[in-house]
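[agent] plan:
  1. take the single chain provided in the ticket
  2. run structure prediction with default settings
  3. attach structure tokens to the ticket
  4. add a short note for the reviewer (M.T.)
[agent] executing step 1
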Amino acid sequence: MVKVQIFGSLKAATDNKSEVEIDASTLRELLDALADRYPGMRPQLDRGVSVAIDGRIYNDSWFTRIKDDSEVVLLARLKGG
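[agent] step 2 finished; step 3 output follows
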């Protein structure tokens, strides 16, 4: 199980939980499991989110491996201007 920190507006889809545990070993598995467990999060996941794994931000690297002890943070996608 991976502990995922939930930030910003995404917390509304998890009943304001700031941390959830998800069974996943890749970024794609993580996002799919989050959408299954928290259907209200699916629209934001479909638009795109940023996921920080051990301090590095990933956007579309679906096969990035996640270890059980990784620090994982989920936040609305950061967009530059």
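[agent] step 4 note for reviewer: The mean pLDDT is 92.
[agent] ticket updated
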